[in-house]
Amino acid sequence: MPLDDLDPYRVPHHPDQPGFTGITDLDDLARKRWGAAWSGTAAALGHGGPHRIGEAVTLLRCLVPLAPPGGGTTGEPPPGSCSGTRREAFGAVLSSEPPDAAGFAETLVHETQHIKLAALAALTPLHHAGPAPRHFAPWRPDPRPFDGLWHGVYSHLALADWWLRHARALPPGPGRERAWAEHARRREQVGAALPVLVGSDALTPAGRTVAEGMVTAYTRLTHAEVPADHLARAVAYVATTRALWLQRQGGTHPS
Questions:
Q1: 38 secondary structure, DSSP code
Q2: Cβ(127)–Cβ(204) under 8 Å?
Q3: Which secondary-structure segment (H or E) carries 237?
Q4: 101-123 vs 50-59: helix axis angle to the nearest 10?
């Protein structure tokens, strides 16, 4: 798919997402790095099953490069990464230069989920919840509106599945340990937030069907064997995140 760093209207100059950088222009060296990152990602993405490759090929239309977070430049190795999608631009992914193939595969899985769910919501209402930011999301420090939590659970569920399959496909070593840690954390994050969606009376019949499908997928993940140390750290991480969230909200119990 095209790497679009030319269209002057490809993204607003001041996106409203926290930590979301602005657009950047690429030089020849940066384009070569993007090409290498893209070509090296196919195998990692495919570890999640042929459907992950199929989704990417079918749904993705272009990739808009973003400036590196943390004040870096396109001439330096990326210190981190950020990514996003916009509902009015179906099939477009916005991303800073990924740190490695696994990180790029994770980005594509994550953002493809947002694209899919936004498209479904455009076809049929999934919920009637209001926009008030009041829900606890273990992957964000700020309260989230119901729709933000909805998207977050849907995308993190896919990430938990992809990291699990990726871990199983890797030989023993640091890469595999990283994959187990990422899977365990994503799984515990979904488990902490999913009950809010399932218990909501704002879901439409179509939304209820999607929520029940997420429960089925999450239950299947909980039956997977995960190294006990990674799972224990993930449980502790989510518990700490919840406690910090409560402190910031003045002790209000997260919903």
A1: H
A2: yes
A3: helix 228-248
A4: 60
Write out the DSSP string of 144-200. B-HHHHHHHHHHHHHHHHHHHHHHHHSPSSHHHHHHHHHHHHHHHHHHHHHHHHHT-
How far apart CA 12 and CA 251 sit, in angstroms, is 36
Q: How far apart are CA 213 and CA 154, in angstroms?
A: 10
Distance CA 106, CA 219 (A): 21
Ramachandran category for residue 212: left, alpha or beta (phi over 0 → left; psi -120 to 50 → alpha): alpha
Note the pLDDT tens digit of each residue in 153-176.
Answer: 999 999 999 999 999 999 999 999
Q: Supply the mean pLDDT for the chain.
A: 89
Residues with Cβ within 8 Å of residue 30, at least 6 apart in sequence? 65, 74, 75, 97
d(CA 253, CA 210): 26
Helices and strands per DSSP (H, E), number in the chain: 8, 3
Q: Look-up: residue for tokens 């990924």?
A: 98
For the chain, strand residue ranges (E) read 62-66, 83-84, 92-96
Q: pTM value?
A: 0.90
> Helix, strand or coil for residue 83?
strand
The bridge status of strand 83-84 relative to strand 92-96 is: antiparallel
Query: What is the Cα–Cα distance from 35 to 3, expressed in whole angstroms?
Result: 9
Q: Can you give the pLDDT at residue 81?
A: 78
